[in-house]
């Protein structure tokens, strides 16, 4: 495997960053994970738009011209022979002697990796669905920035695993579901309306979420962008999560309560099926 580190393509096993990288010391950096499908980086433009937003929010400069970034992303995918899988990119504020203040000199540091993932694994998972647990929101209020500071997400997802579940939903003090540890949260109401939290309200604006909203519009589905409570989710006709790695993945249990008959819903499965047609149009 090959990784891209600060201007060089290196063997993944030999790839390394400086011990004074601020990403390592302060989580002072941002990242993106893009799905690779049939050799294409799905929704690359949207991922780079979001990267731009995250970088601006933290006053980190682009490490290279955006066009060059696109080429390098594709190059890492190609050099690793990834047809289906993921490409991960991370930009940190750079390397400087440890100090809280922004360094005057440091150039942003970049790491890009890619790996193959067998699409059959997610496809099988979608046939049975996943379980989620709920946990109290304990993150800062700028989770709209895709920062590498993911410790609450790590702990929440580990708690989910230990409870026999695959995702944890962060719940706000008002009882509404915010999002998953690495996904956005959705339900389908009894009358067949898709519901997902507005992206302005304390969540990451998922790229998959945005594309699924377009897919839903194309399928003529009714959508409500509003908060929903855990109780509403447990009583919903369907529930599911979205992310670049799961696309749209049925949720069949929340905190041990089965959703509907405990099997994946039909709406999430049709959204999942329709996703790639729309995503591929976003290549240009
Ligand atoms: N919320 C959080 C906290 C995430 O980490 C992710 C995955 N990056 C998402 C939502 C989903 O975003 P996307 O669809 O862009 O993968």
Describe this structure in words.
Helix 6 (207-218) crosses helix 8 (266-281). This protein has helices at 22-26, 44-57, 66-79, 119-128, 151-162, 207-218, 230-234, 266-281; strands spanning 2-5, 8-11, 29-37, 40-41, 85-92, 109-116, 130-136, 167-171, 177-180, 184-188, 194-196, 223-225, 238-243, 247-254, 257-258. A hairpin with a 3-residue loop joins strand 13 and strand 14. It has two domains: 2-117, Aminotransferase class 4, branched-chain amino acid transferase, N-terminal domain (D-amino Acid Aminotransferase, Chain A, domain 1); 122-281, D-amino Acid Aminotransferase, Chain A, domain 2 (Alpha-Beta Barrel). The two termini are 27 Å apart. It is globular and about 55 Å long. With 284 residues, it is of the alpha+beta class. 31% of the residues lie in helices and 27% in strands. The chain is built from eight helices and 15 strands. The strands form two sheets. Strands 7, 8, 9, 10, 11, 12, 13, 14 and 15 form a nine-stranded mixed beta sheet that branches. Strands 2-1-6-5-3-4 form a six-stranded antiparallel beta sheet. It binds 4'-deoxy-4'-aminopyridoxal-5'-phosphate. Residues 33, 179, 182-184, 204, 206-209, 242-244 line the site of 4'-deoxy-4'-aminopyridoxal-5'-phosphate.
């Amino acid at each position: 495997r090959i990784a891209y580190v600060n201007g060089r393509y290196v063997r993944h096993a030999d790839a390394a960053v400086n011990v004074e990288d601020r990403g390592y010391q302060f989580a002072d950096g941002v990242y993106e994970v893009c799905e690779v499908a049939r050799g294409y980086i799905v929704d690359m433009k949207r991922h780079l738009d979001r990267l731009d937003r995250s970088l601006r929010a933290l006053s980190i400069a682009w490490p290279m011209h955006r066009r060059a970034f696109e080429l390098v992303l594709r190059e890492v995918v190609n050099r690793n022979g990834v047809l289906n899988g993921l490409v991960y990119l991370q930009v940190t504020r750079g390397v400087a002697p440890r100090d809280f203040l922004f360094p005057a000199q440091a150039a942003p540091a970049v790491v890009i990796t890619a790996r193959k993932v067998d699409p059959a694994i997610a496809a099988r998972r979608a046939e049975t669905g996943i379980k989620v647990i709920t946990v109290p929101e304990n993150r800062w209020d700028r989770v709209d920035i895709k920062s590498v500071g993911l410790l609450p997400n790590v702990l929440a997802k580990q708690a989910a695993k230990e409870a026999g579940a695959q995702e944890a939903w962060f719940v706000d003090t008002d009882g509404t579901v915010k999002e998953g540890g690495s996904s956005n949260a959705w339900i389908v109401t009894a009358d067949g309306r898709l519901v997902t939290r507005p992206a302005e309200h304390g969540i990451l604006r998922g790229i998959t979420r945005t594309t699924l909203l377009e897919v839903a519009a194309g399928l003529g589905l009714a959508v409500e962008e509003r908060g929903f409570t855990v109780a509403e989710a447990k009583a919903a006709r369907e529930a599911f999560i979205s992310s670049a790695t799961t696309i749209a993945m049925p949720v069949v249990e929340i905190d041990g309560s089965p959703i509907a008959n405990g099997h994946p819903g039909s709406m999430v499965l049709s959204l999942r099926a329709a996703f790639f047609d729309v995503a591929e149009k976003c290549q240009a």
